[in-house]
Amino acid sequence: MGEHDRPAVFFVVQPTVAHYREPLLRHLRDSTAIDVDFHGRFANSETSAADRIHPASDDVLSEVTPIRFSTLGRLWWEHGQVRAVWSGSHDVYVLAGRIYTVSAWIALLAGKLRGRTVLLWGHGWKRAESGLKLRLRRAFYSLASGLLVYGDRAKELGISYGVPAEKIEVVYNSIYDAERIGSVQVSSVQVMGSDASTRREDAGTASAAPAQASASLSPGPSAERFTIIYCSRLTARHRLDLLADALAEYPADGPRPFVLVVGEGAERPRLERKFAESGVDAEFTGACYDDAALRELYGRADVAASIGGAGLNVIQALGFGVPVVAESDHRDSSPEIEAVVEGETGRYFQAGDAASLRAVLRELIDAPAQVARLGRRGVETIGRRYSAQRHASAMEQAILRLRRRRRHR
């Protein structure tokens, strides 16, 4: 191919072809800069049925070649990957950057031997590492032509561990198209006594569609009480118990906040009992993938709680104009936590500390103007960096730059 041709890209969707990958995949499919050949797992079948991630729609799945994989404990083998890299029918190969995928190691070695441009896409370093795991990850990444990582911290850590800066491209992450990003924050707690139009203005509405959605908000306890939304899978890893513990000891000098729990998972029955036994008023809605329903739910919320490891849940909340209260320095948090900036787009509480969480929530209840400001800044941050359009563009440009770097070495 010539230098200015549209390169063919063998692209492994990371981690699965899930519902939240649809906007990104649609933009990459329509790219005029690269010609993308999608491959991926259709479901995270290594988890229990209750904890599985909802897949993309059938029309998106129809454009993805399914990957068969075998497992042995934490080790995976993704069938066909090594053969694809060795055969060299594509110009660039973007593989999932998981160090326990044995086939990825062999594919990277095949790429080295055959002179292919093989990139790894993933979190990169989520936290500082040392010892054997650090040596293993550095060896893995050294075989690749470049890295596509989700956050700035991953690049900083990579450079500190000796990876050339020009080999690491930060592409961030996404969940929604830019048109879906905009505040739906209209809770009466924030602006008591204002009419609906004033509440939307004060909440920082960023687009017409979210403002229209707010007109149909369902009534409920959250119309009169400070409301916390939690939207994520209900697994033991996320430790939602902490929120119940924080609110169980809430002072009697005011009404306890109301909690909306949006999600499904194996832990749901136990968590429903936990909140009830703690005397916390909570509504468990189940999983929700409908855009209008999600907007309505977030429109009832004042803040979003991220308990345990944070991920795309913070991007979703901030994109809807709902500030995030998150655990500080949680080891399981993904790079998306970088979108939560203390005092700018959200607040942090001490990891695992129910009293610290309770104190932060009380401060926010007493500061409605701050909550509104955090919501506005959140929308600005997501629109600037985390939309599907920005994500796709960043990936296109990174792939082209890393390909040129590989060809000119």
Could you explain how this protein is built, in words?
Keywords: Transferase. This is Glycosyltransferase family 4 protein. GO terms for molecular function: glycosyltransferase activity. Helix 10 links the parallel strand 11 (258-262) and strand 12. The chain contains 15 helices and 15 strands. Helix 3 packs parallel to helix 4 and helix 12 (312-319) crosses helix 14. The protein has helices at residues 22-29, 58-61, 81-87, 102-114, 131-142, 152-160, 196-202, 208-213, 241-248, 268-277, 291-299, 312-319, 354-365, 368-385, 388-407; strands spanning 8-12, 35-40, 64-66, 69-72, 75-78, 92-96, 117-122, 146-149, 168-170, 227-231, 258-262, 282-286, 303-306, 324-328, 346-350. It has 409 residues and is an alpha/beta fold. The strands form 3 sheets. It has a 7-stranded parallel beta sheet, sandwiched between helices. A 6-stranded parallel beta sheet has the order 12-11-10-13-14-15. The chain has a two-stranded antiparallel ribbon with strand order 4-5.
